[in-house]
Amino acid sequence: MKKNIFFILITFIVVFSISLSACASKPADNSGTPPAPDNIDIEEPETNVTPQEEQTYVYDEDAVEVLGADDELTDDEYLRSIAGLDDAKSVSKKEFEDDKHEILEIISELAIIMETKNTLAWLNYIDEPSKEYYKNPVNLRKAQRKLPNKLIELKNIGDYFLYVFIPSRKNSHIDEIRYVSKTHVKAVQVREDTDAIYYEFKKENGKWLIYLPPVS
Q1: How many other CB atoms are there within 10 angstroms of residue 84's CB atom?
Q2: Residues 69, 208, 84, CA angle at the centre, nearest 5°?
Q3: In the prediction, which pLDDT does 42 show?
Q4: 147 and 164 in contact (C-beta within 8 Å)?
């Protein structure tokens, strides 16, 4: 009897141990997430894309404004320059620009001549009627009476150059020209209420020469 009880007890222990081992060897899956299927190719997004080059546009506002201002000033100056003409259309804008350029070049050359007081060089820029007028002693005396310094005597046209022409143009600055006619121009310095006339030019044989007005 005791042997039977012992045998049953041993058998129960063995069966219980086997069952316990089987339960322990199977892991519990509490994630609730189904396993991912095998052998699925995942396509990666294409990243090697060449970006489009950004174009840069430069806008120079100052240059645009200055250009426009220069054009407007040139037009206004042209209209002022031809205002004294009976026939304004007789001088085109291109002719005005060419005449002004040539006259300003002559004035620049004269500045050097006046600095060196070179009378012979100066005479090359004077028109013939003006030379004849100021070679006349009568006319020189008229000019002499206009001088503030009464001790100066004008004996010849060279004296007129030294004591009248040079001092009256000292520190002058020519801004614009004014047409008296197509072949007669005044070079002026523009002031608030008037134009200061420093030179007069007349065109002879296609060349601008200085015209010296008679003594008034």
Answers
A1: 13
A2: 55
A3: 43
A4: yes
pLDDT tens profile 29-70: 544 544 544 544 444 445 444 444 544 434 344 433 333 445
**3-class SS of residue 133:** helix
- CB neighbour burial string for 132-164, b if at least 16 within 10 angstroms, e if fewer: ebbeeeebbeebbeeeeeeeeebeebebbbbbb
Phi (first) and psi of residue 205, to 5 degrees: 55, 40
Task: Decide: 209 and 194 in contact? Cβ < 8 Å.
Answer: no
Question: What dihedral angle (degrees, nearest 10) is formed by the CA atoms of 62, 67, 68, 74?
Answer: 140
Could you tell me how far CA 215 lies from the centroid of its own chain? 45
User: At residue 20, does pLDDT exceed 80?
Assistant: no
pLDDT tens sequence across 155-201: 999 999 999 999 999 889 999 999 999 999 999 999 888 899 999 99
Q: Could you tell me how many residues make up the chain?
A: 216
137 to 160, 166, 200, 209: CA distances (angstroms): 11, 20, 22, 23
117: helix, strand or coil: coil
Average pLDDT, the chain: 80
Instruction: For the chain, state the CA radius of gyration.
Output: 53
The reported pTM is 0.66
